Amino acid sequence: MPTAHSPSSPGSPNSPAPQGASAGAGPVGGNDAIDALDGRLIRLLAEEPRIGVLECSRRLQVARGTVQARLDRLQAKGVIGGFGPEVDPAALGYPVTAFATLEISQGQGADVRAHLASVPEVLELHTITGAGDMMVRIVARSNADLQRVIDRVVGFDGIVRSSTAIALENPVPYRILPLVDQAAAE
């Protein structure tokens, strides 16, 4: 496993970004885009997340230090946010996915966020523009169980109105590699 995966590594989010130009430094930083090598490294890690730094360097045909420096910079700049496993809620017994748009009382944002964070079936929370104030992605064990989850989500004084849509299928699941490829090519 890459050493950059370790929380104590120099590339962890709590560590300062490496300074200066060095071998394998790449353009990551500020508003700079990633380069082709960064893109190839991200793609390799996405396709084979358990691969080690040494094997990455062998496959990319660059020095091990270059791979480690790139990983450190990509992590420090937030391009790579983690190396955890992808978990499928349906495989855990939660095959129903829904999106709820919530309208909240003015000044209740922090309390509503805390409430929603306490509901395990809330997978994501986004503040939004438009008809609502927040959008949450929720999962449930069944349609009947979805009612229980919605009741728990909206059973908070700071939430004044909700609208829920059940996802029927997910023909384009969350993906990032096409965007990585585009950013690396620019």
Q: What is the name of the CATH architecture of the largest domain? A: Orthogonal Bundle
State the order of secondary-structure elements, H for helix, E for strand.
HHHEHEEHEH
End-to-end C-alpha gap = 30 Å
Largest sheet: 4 strands, antiparallel
Give a short summary of the structure.
With 186 residues, this protein is α+β, with helices and mostly antiparallel strands.
Describe the protein in words.
By secondary structure, this protein is an alpha+beta fold. It has two domains: 3-84, Winged helix-like DNA-binding domain superfamily/Winged helix DNA-binding domain (Arc Repressor Mutant, subunit A, Orthogonal Bundle), CATH 1.10.10; 89-166, Alpha-Beta Plaits (2-Layer Sandwich), CATH 3.30.70. It is built from six helices and four strands. The protein has helices at 36-47, 53-60, 64-76, 109-117, 143-154, 177-185; strands at residues 96-104, 122-127, 134-140, 159-166. It has a four-stranded antiparallel sheet with strand order 2-3-1-4. Helix 1 (36-47) runs antiparallel to helix 6 and helix 2 packs across helix 3. The longest helix has 13 residues, at 64-76. The radius of gyration is 20 Å and the shape is elongated. The two termini are 30 Å apart.
